[in-house]
Design a protein that fits this description.
single chain, alpha/beta, D-Maltodextrin-Binding Protein, domain 2, 5-stranded mixed sheet, 15 helices, 10 strands, globular
Amino acid sequence: MRKILALLLPLLMSAAACGASGGSSSSSSSPSSCGTPVHFTVRLNYILDDEQVPYFYALDKGWYRQACLDPEFQASTGSTSTVQLVGNGSADMGVADTVAVLNGLAQGIDLQAFGVVYQHNPTALLIRRSVLTPEQQAETRPSKDILYGKTYGAVISGSPFIFYKAFVKEQNLDPSRIRQVNISPPGFTEMATGKVDFIATFYQVAPVLEGMGVPLKVFKLEDYGQKAYGLSYFSTPKWIATHGDVIKRFLTVTKRAIDYTNQHPDEGVKTLCNYNQSICASDASLKTNVEEFKLYMPLYPNLTPGKPMFCISPTTWKATARLLLDAGVVTSLPDLSTSFTNRFISGC
């Protein structure tokens, strides 16, 4: 879906803004009684995609406005861009990969996270089955040596590249035995044409490649012991200091929308179709997007027993930061003591 939607970035940004301003019919059916809702901008980590369904559910159903909120969701071209735009004040808050937030901190950008929305490490290696032996294809948990002699398509501007480089070090792999070719995101064309044998990306996009006729072997880095956070909510300390109540209400409504998504996954793709008709333009397109969406279920599972959703574990936060060291992105870690807060989530 990311490949399809990348061509429609201006349209989706316009649609998101329209939804946030009450442009949808269902949103207008639930007017707020609080006066003028608080307007603020939320820079997404990418263009409108499956993982962002809850935000648009909440917009369409008027839940944000009922909480006296008027969020404007803005599309982006990746987590790195989102971090930079929030850091320079072009957006009020953002949703980005945690490693990108931490890397921004390491570069001197003044940021603070106030909730983790995706507690899994979402990165996986997608390998074309055609370059594997029958024995390798049949393995449930392939040996790391499966990568030797293969060509890796590296999107060096994305966070999966950081996860991959850290994985190579953690697994004591010999990088000289893996050929690296730098490619442009998302790398699907290079995979389909056989230019590269595998890419590091988010495992949920596998149906897109397979829909292009590329049978895959998928193994998640999390299954090999690489624990890390995915997406986090963040902003600048200055904005957070003056918008604490807004953040609390935003997290409460978004949690409600996530729960609704998990209970009614069949509505997910239909909601996206309201913002991008091409998703449902053909039976093949709809099938691919439905299959991709199913891989997200349950959406944003809470992996911290006994804790409410969005809580940030210091242990996992530090483990995520260490990936920057392992990947050689930084030579020293930023100060983590004030890099996140749980103060807007009761029970953390």
